[in-house]
Amino acid sequence: SGRWAKAEAILRELEEKCGTPTGKLRQVADAMTVEMHAGLASEGGSKLKMLISYVDNLPTGDEEGVFYALDLGGTNFRALRVQLGGEERRVIKREYEERSIPPHLMVGSSHELFDFIAAALAKFVATESEDFVLQPGRQRELGFTFSFPVRQISLASGILIKWTKGFLIEDAIGQDIVKELTKAMERVGLDMHVTALVNDTVGTLARGRYNNPDVIAAVILGTGTNAAYVERANAIPKWQGLLPKSEEMVINMEWGNFQSSHIPLTEYDQSLDAESLNPGEQIFEKIISGMYLGEIVRRVLCRMAEEASFFGDDIPPKLRNPFILRTPDIAAMHHDTSADLKVVGSKLKDILEIPNSSLKMRKMIVEICDVVATRGARLAAAGILGILKKLGRDTVKEGGKQRSVIASDGGLFEHYSEFRNCLMNTLKELLGEEVSESITVELSNDGSGIGAALIAASHSQYL
Ligand code: ADP
Ligand code: MG
């Protein structure tokens, strides 16, 4: 009937507008490389901030002692401690505590947010057992993972540039985040030294390197998306200070803000962006990351309901709620292998209160999920190719056995296997058989936790 034809037309249009043929991906990768150069050349030289992390020593495995980490920047807030045992014994013990951030604190005042964090940390420190050994006379040290764009002036200080991912606390913008945390720790009577302020991508890179010396970059695919990599210090024209002894510097790209005319955008992306907390910003993130994929699918379904009566004469009221369809939901639908797509059926019922969906309807919904996730995964792969190009690692070196490992973390990469597989296959497609043998993308779990503690250890004030 006309209904189906119209719905079908909307789906085909989506497919066409989201298309990412190889040639287009190469253009995206080239644009990424160009913007990387521009962002390294001068402050504000590109939409890619290419932030200097001040991490010039990645962990080697020799690190010893107890170290703490705090992870703020996603859905949950976590505190962690590790006991490191050096080259032989590695991570001897680790303990975590995780809580969700009360939504009102995500949009409240800086003071309230940091008080909440410091109080949670103090409670956690109070439960430290004798398996964790702090050397006499030493202060506990902390790596603080703060996954928002920060302009660092040293390893342990940084000014918040802006919020992303649903956080918006005006009075924290322009403030030194480490100072805010330190003051809050003093208010709750916690004696702890913030040794390093790190982005989760940088933590993931450190975590990956601790396990594997071939790790050269990290990519986060979770609520948001970002990447970090190891750059030669003398290839950073905007770098003002002395070159570090290691001659290396980890760069936090903030690639979520990447933008290029080669990125395929749709009307759904445009309206999502316009209605977001940060219009015009984080465009790459808004088409790739977990915070948004489900919402894009919801917007497509809304249009199908409105213009093609896809769900019948009435538009299901729940469908009008922004962000009601989460990325884990679309992943579950996408992964549904049952003949009658019963997972899709139950998601529609439970989330959107659409009680009886036909198989035809369910199939189309899976297709929408596929189109949206595929575009995101393929663009993420193009971004990785951009980094490899910048480092000259996208070709086979003569006689070289050079290996490149990209450490990846985040719930999207870890749990959305269609997304992950598509990303890996696309990277292979872009690199070709021979080169892709020397390049792997590896899950690097908990970079934002252990990674930050490892960086605190490799930059300890007692070294
Ligand atoms: P964060 O990015 O918030 O630090 P994670 O790395 O754990 O935290 O990623 C969580 C995000 O990953 C969620 O917001 C969601 O978008 C995505 N995610 C989690 N589980 C799944 C899943 N099963 N399928 C797809 N995406 C998922
Ligand atoms: Mg995280």
TrEMBL record:
Residues 11-210 form the Hexokinase N-terminal domain. It comes from the Eukaryota. GO terms for biological process: glucose metabolic process; glycolytic process; intracellular glucose homeostasis. InterPro entries: ATPase_NBD (IPR043129), Hexokinase (IPR001312), Hexokinase_C (IPR022673), Hexokinase_N (IPR022672). It is an enzyme of class 2 (transferase). GO terms for molecular function: ATP binding; D-glucose binding; fructokinase activity; glucokinase activity. The keyword Transport does not apply. CDD domains: ASKHA_NBD_HK_plant. It holds the Pfam family Hexokinase_1. Keywords: ATP-binding, Glycolysis, Kinase, Nucleotide-binding, Transferase. Its EC number is 2.7.1.-. This is Phosphotransferase.
